[in-house]
Design brief:
394 residues, alpha+beta, Double Stranded RNA Binding Domain, two-stranded antiparallel ribbon, 14 helices, 24 strands, 41% helix, globular, RNA polymerase II cis-regulatory region sequence-specific DNA binding, zinc ion binding
Length: 394
């Protein structure tokens, strides 16, 4: 029984020969989609996947080929032209693609078009709707060949495999490391591609019109996205959606190693580095490395002396936002840290921690001379002076 290639429509004698033939389209990599580059373990899985792309094209650009009376040959011809080799150039940013179908998906970055809607939650996508739907169905089609653990997406599987292989995704230009292949590919483009959209205020250049629009809001202060629960406003829809999860308690992002869940993908990426030991962010001054960029930014201020966080009550400045938040409680009198034993409240978490030791009897600070123990470092320092005969106020 003959089979037909879903890419070039050539008639193949048998399914096994079709498997061999498919590799001519995928550069020898078994069963890689030439539209979105997702890989599959079997040709049948790839064929099913390709039908989704065909349905996408046939529902929009290929409508003319489906006119009444057509025998389907015009549709096949049109689909073949969509999977033919380029290069095809984006008229907006001039990036080139091997396949026109990939170009069409790319163009949605510039147009903001999101034609695919999730039937469960009505969220819209420019592509990759199938991957999102798995979050609702619980389907996990991607299996690790080492430990047989399963995942909802190939990107999650690739990230997990690094636990077994120790593989690192580093930029060959600037040596910056990334959590996965897709993030690395996106970064590499910043070294080689044009950034055609320029901010008229600060002249920063952006890859897409949508990125520029987001950036401009940092100058205008516009916050068009409002939380439906507490009415707080945000400049980015993604930030608003992340905030909403603080109300719902939803934690969509699960660690492939320990199954701990997070509300934000960025928090998951940061957590994964506790398993891999990866520290991709390096200080230019002392070369100390950090697992996340926020820790690096805070560290850099120890070199620069920068204190960007200013108190609106007394104009005192701080190098870190948590330092400012802690200080503001001096003015507001807020005491949000409550002892679960005696209900006494404190303005600082550290003060509560010290207080709790009066209930637990914990004395973590030991004198190196006489082994006497204390609840606070300040008490230990005072005690040490009795050994040194030091009189600080003399």
């Amino acid at each position: 029984m003959s089979s037909e290639c879903p890419l070039c429509f050539e008639s193949i004698a048998s399914p096994s020969e079709l498997d061999l033939h498919m590799k001519t389209h995928t550069d020898g990599i078994p069963f890689k989609c030439t539209v979105c580059f997702e890989t599959f373990g079997q040709a049948t899985d790839l064929k099913s996947h390709l039908r989704a792309h065909m349905q996408e094209m046939s529902s929009s650009d290929c409508a003319a080929a489906k006119k009444k009376g057509s025998d389907g040959s015009s549709l096949k011809s049109h689909l073949a032209s969509n999977t033919g080799k380029g290069p095809f150039e984006c008229t907006v940013c001039h990036k080139t693609f091997r396949y026109v179908s990939v170009l069409k998906v790319h163009l949605r970055i510039h147009t903001g078009e999101m034609p695919f809607e999730c039937e469960f939650c009505s969220k819209k996508f420019g592509c990759n709707l199938r991957a999102h739907i798995r979050a609702h169905t619980g389907e996990k089609p991607f299996e690790c060949t080492v430990c047989t653990k399963r995942f909802v997406s190939s990107s999650h599987l690739r990230m997990h495999v690094r636990i077994h292989t120790g593989q690192d995704f580093s930029c060959t230009v600037c040596s910056k490391s990334f959590g996965g292949e897709q993030a690395l590919r996106g970064h590499v483009r910043t070294h080689r591609e044009e950034l055609p959209f320029e901010c008229m205020v600060c002249h920063k250049k952006c890859r897409t019109g949508a990125d520029l629009k987001k950036h401009v809001r940092t100058h205008t202060g516009e916050k068009p996205f409002e939380c439906s629960v507490c009415h707080k406003k945000f400049s980015q829809v993604g930030t608003r959606n992340q905030h909403l999860r603080t109300h719902t308690g939803e934690k969509r992002f699960e660690c492939a190693v320990c199954n701990q869940k997070y509300a934000q993908a960025a928090h998951l990426r940061k957590h994964i580095r506790t398993h891999t030991g990866e520290k991709p962010f390096e200080c230019d001054f002392c070369h100390m490395k950090f697992s996340d960029d926020s820790a690096l930014r805070g560290h850099l201020r120890t070199h620069t002396g920068e204190k960007p966080f200013e108190c609106t009550f007394c104009d005192k400045k701080f190098s870190a936002s948590f330092g400012l938040r802690s200080h503001i409680r001096v003015h507001t009198g807020e005491k949000s840290f409550e002892c679960t034993v005696c209900k006494k409240k404190f303005g600082h978490g550290q003060h509560l921690e010290i207080h709790v030791r009066t209930h637990t009897g914990d004395r973590p600070y030991e004198c190196s001379v006489c082994q006497k123990r204390f609840t606070q470092t300040s008490h230990l320092r005072t005690h040490l002076r009795t050994h040194s005969k030091r009189k600080p106020f003399a």
